[in-house]
Amino acid sequence: MADNRKGFRSTAGSLVLAAVERIMGIIDIPLRGLQKVAGRTGMAAFFLLPNMAVFTIFVLIPFVINFVYSMTGGAQIFLDQRRYVGLDQYRQIFSCTDYLDPNSCIQDGFWIAAGNTAWFVVIQVALMILVSLITAIILNREIVGRSFWRAVFFFPVLLSPVVVGLIWRWILDRQGLLNFILYEAFGSEPFNWLTDRTTAFAATIGVSVWAHMGFYTLILLAGLQAIPKDLYEAAQMDGTSRSRVFRRITLPLLMPNLVVVLVLALIRAVQVFDEVFVLTHGGPGTSTMYLIQYIYETGFASELRNPGLAAAASILMGAVLVVLTLMQMAASRRKEKKGER
Amino acid sequence: MSTVWQFITRRRGGEGWHWTDIATWVWLIGGLIVMFGPAVWLTLSSFKSPAALSKFPPTILPYVTQEVRVEGFDKALPLYEVKLPDGTSVNLAEKRRIGVIAQMIDPKNPETVHKININDRKPVDMLEFATSNYTEPFLQFDFLRYLWNSVFVTVMATIITLAINSMAAFALSKYKFRGQNLILIIIVGTLMVPLGVIMVPLYSVVSALGLFNNLWGVILPTVATPTGVFLLRQYMLTIPDELIDAARMDKASEWQIYWRIVLPLAAPALAVLAIFSVVWRWNDFLWPLIVLSRSSLYTLQVGLNVYAGQLNVQWQYILAMTVVTMIPVILVFVFLQKFIARGIATSGLK
């Protein structure tokens, strides 16, 4: 029986292989002709072509026309039907009577979203680094079943944002698990976590930390494991206290990884959208409306859609991301230099 | 007794317990509960009937109230355990309920009606897995369609990603030509352009190509992943050039060198990229949400979001379909988690 199955599998496998062989052979015929014309190095262009074509059409061209797009008005999609308005969209965004109060701006939605995002980024990144650092340090200890525990903290990273959002919507529901636990433990009345401005905001932070901390933990853990063991042994022989070992050995040697994690987390947090959108839809009111959702709704979803304004907002967000990315490149260059030493 | 305790708590190396050891295990066990608990709770909940879902406090396992058929009634009646005034408890079926008083009857003796305060009874529960939560969305709603769309997008995008990224990586690692560095810089540059920044003009490009409301409009913009090109290029750089030179001596064409020599040797890197691509494309949400507005084209993620956003959310179906959406990712997690962890640790890929 087992032999039969193996036999079947190998015949099926060899059939597929034969088919692939055929196809590749057929492709080879015109390509040999091309190689005669273009030369050996010319074939490099052929190999690059499909990828570069997709890049150009779906990344480069949109990137360039985004700037043009942000200088046009109206609700039309195609650029040639849109009317040129110059810097009007940017002027609109920046026209506020009081620069400290988002409600005094004409485009108050943008500034509310930007303010929410700023708060989100600061708190979420701080919490993220704290939690993943603790977890990484713990996973780096000599514990039984380390790879199992590493997998435990990594699990939510793979879940889709929609699944994450729905799982937590279900738990934070009025009749959900959290209220049940609080009821059992303290006898407290059910509370609607996602319809209160403060708790909904806190929920978006908590859920996104839950979903992504495993990723940063892995990077930090790789950094911890790269620290030479003999340093710790030497410290132990000198009778150095644990907290001193942490401050004088672990932290300084982990610093390059910590900086990379910090910048990566910042870049990702600015672009928060998926799981938070499914969790709260930006509500209640606009208390969990973040920048990407603002761009999405201004550009596509709302009745009074204004793609030009959305493009201008996305360019402003992009400018912030460029600054953060430059920071990341500087940080990783420093890390490489440290590694050489 | 104390020797037993010593045996349990003894440590390798003969050291005693430090407070950090306790903190470690508290953190690990707490992490286990917090990380896995929500998904387990979701799965348990997905087997509950709508009545059980709306109950507070909720039960952990899916219970339903037992029902009995009584002569003279068309519908089955719910069964309750009732404490009678004389102190005995019997199982009675509820005939009707007015305010806090229920008219209950004995299923074996339906003539006599007991009037019972509803505080003096509790429902007779039995364990029942509501598998209809899983079957009905597939029969009544379009979830089979969504599932198919998701599979189609994931498989197609992954195949194309592997093909064109490996070709580009081959060109960038095994040839020397002018402008090579420029192309590399362009690819690095696109790493920095996230979807959120270009989604408005990308939408107009995709519409202009006639790909709006088309699954290819979801697939094509995602296939030229800069991370994929990089991963494969780094790996292909380690393949010795002598192999390729030898093949050229034997009059192999460049295409044959690519698919007969370089591709098989790059299989480990291709496997890592394939795993990542499957997870990325299966989980994609924002872009499909923008491109697909016709409901027959929804992927599972978009369909779930739409159903969960409706006014009266049918949670029993949403929960079941969320579990279905989770399955491929769980499979990847169980079997391939190590590859992914290694990929992230070595290249910061996500």
Helix content of chain B: 55-70%
The CATH superfamily of the largest domain in chain B turns out to be: MetI-like
Number of helices of chain A: 12
Quaternary state reads heterodimer
Structural class by SSE content of chain B: alpha+beta
Instruction: Say which CATH homologous superfamily of the largest domain in chain A is assigned.
Output: MetI-like
* Main sheet attributes: strand count, strand direction, barrel closure of chain A: 2 strands, antiparallel
**Class computed from helices, strands and strand pairing of chain A:** mainly alpha
Provide the domain count of chain A. Answer: 2
Describe the overall structure.
The complex is a heterodimer of chains A (341) and B (350). In chain A, 76% of the residues lie in helices and 1% in strands. Chain A contains 12 helices and 2 strands. Chain A has helices spanning 2-69, 88-93, 108-139, 146-158, 161-171, 177-186, 197-225, 229-237, 242-270, 274-280, 291-301, 307-340; strands at 72-73, 83-84. A two-stranded antiparallel sheet of chain A has the order 1-2. In chain A, helix 3 crosses helix 11 (291-301) and helix 4 (146-158) crosses helix 7. Chain B has 350 residues and is an alpha+beta fold. Chain B has 3 domains: 2-44, no CATH class; 63-127, SH3 type barrels, CATH 2.30.30; 133-347, Orthogonal Bundle (MetI-like fold). The model of chain B has no long low-confidence stretch (mean pLDDT 83). Chains A and B meet through helix 1, helix 3, helix 4, helix 5 and helix 6 of A and helix 2, helix 5, helix 6, helix 7 and helix 11 of B.
